Model the fold of this input.
Amino acid sequence: MMDSTMQWHKLLSSSRLVEAVPNISDAGRTVFEKDFDKIIFSSSFRRLKDKTQVFSLVENDYIRSRLSHSLEASCVGRTLGTLVGSEIIKRHYAELQDFQARDFGDIVAAACLAHDIGNPPFGHAGEDAIQEWFKSAKSEKFLSLLSANQLKDFKKFEGNAQGFRTLAKLENRPALKGVQFTCAMLATFTKYPREAGINSSSFKKYNAIDNNKSTKKHGFFQAEKDLFAQVAQEVGLIPRNQKSAWWCRHPLAFLVEAADDICYHIVDLEDGFQMGYITYKEATALLHDILINEKLDGLGSDETENIKYLRAKAIHKLITEVKQVFLDCEDKFLKGTCDSPLTTDIASSQKLKEIIDITRKNVYESCEVVEVKVAGYEVISGLLEEFITAISDESLSKSYLIKKLIPNFREQEDIYTRILQVTDYIAGMTDSFAVSLFKKIKGISLPRGGR
Done:
C-alpha cells in the first residue's frame, strides 16, 4: 500500500515539455482546448479517416473508421470529464478554485481524441504483424545491437506507445516552438504508464492480477522514456518501482478508458447491425437490457432509427454509471490503489460483457473481417521486411526506397533510431496507402506515368 497521494492541482498541470514555450493567453480558448484543437489539425489525426476500426476498406459510408470512433469517444470523454470535474471542484474548492469543470472535460476529450493516433494500419492486426515480424528469424540480424528493453519495444510493439511518441515527439518542432501538449493531457492519454521489458518479481505479481489493467501493455518506448518521466514528475504521478519506469495512472486516464470502452461496446454493436452480422432482435434486446427502468418514448417503425435511439440512450446511461463509480473511488485513484477499468464496476458491467461476447462472435470473427486482417498482416509484414532490410544493408541504405519514401530519414542515426523511423512511417500509414505501397514495392502494380 502506497502512502503517497496525488494532488489535483498538479494533475491538472498546464506546463508543457519544452519549458521555453510559454502558455500564451487566449481569450477564446483555454490551454486544454488548445490541446484538443492541435490534435484536430494534425496530419496524424486526419489519417485516422482511413484506418480500421473493425471493418477495413469498407464501401458502406455509415460504418465507423478510427477517425469517427475517436471523435465519438472524445464527446463521451468531454461529458464524463465535465461531470466529474464539477463534483471534484466542489470537494477540493480551496485547491481548485482557479479551475473549471470544463478543464477536466477538455483534458479528457483531447486524450480521447488522440487515443488511437499511434495505431498502425489494419487495427490490432497491424500491431500483431509488427510484433510477429520482429520475433521472427528474419529480424534477428537487424536486432543484435539493441538492448533488451529496446528489443521489447519492437517485439511487443504497442500502438499506445507509438501514440505517446507521436504526440510528444513526432508532432513537435522544438526549433520552431511548434506543437506542444500540456503535461496533464499527455499523462491522461497514457493508459499504460510503464516501459516494456519490466521483469521484477513485484511487477510480475502485480501484472498477474486480472483487474490491474494499467500494466497489461506499455505506454512509451525507450526513446521517450525520459519524456514520460518528465511528464510524470510534473503532474505528480506515483512511482510504483524506483528501479524501472513504471507509475500509477493519472486518475483521468480511467475516464479516457471508459469513454473508449463505452463507444466501442455500443457502437460496434450498432455497426454490426448495419452490416447485417447482428439481427435487429439481438441488438434491441441487448440495448434494452442496459436500459431497464428507463423511459423509452422514441421508438418507431424504422429499425435503423430505433437502433440509433437506443444507442444514444444506452451511452447516456453508461456515462451516468461511470461518473458515479469514479466519484465513489476518487480517493483510491489519487492513492494509486485502484487499477481496474471503471466499466467493470458499474451496474451494467455484465450487460456490456454480453454485448462484447456477441460482437466478438458475430462481427470480429466474421469472414470479411478476418480476411482483411490476414491481408493486412501480409501487407505490414512485407513492408517491414523491405524497409528494415534497406536501412540495415549498406549497399541499399542510399536506395530510392529509403531516400524517396521515408520522410526526413536520418541515415546517421543508430540502428534503434533507424528502426523507429521505419515503424513511425508504417504506423502512420492509412490502410489504403499501405496496400498501394505494398503493391508498388512488390511489383504487383506500377505508378502511373506523368508528373
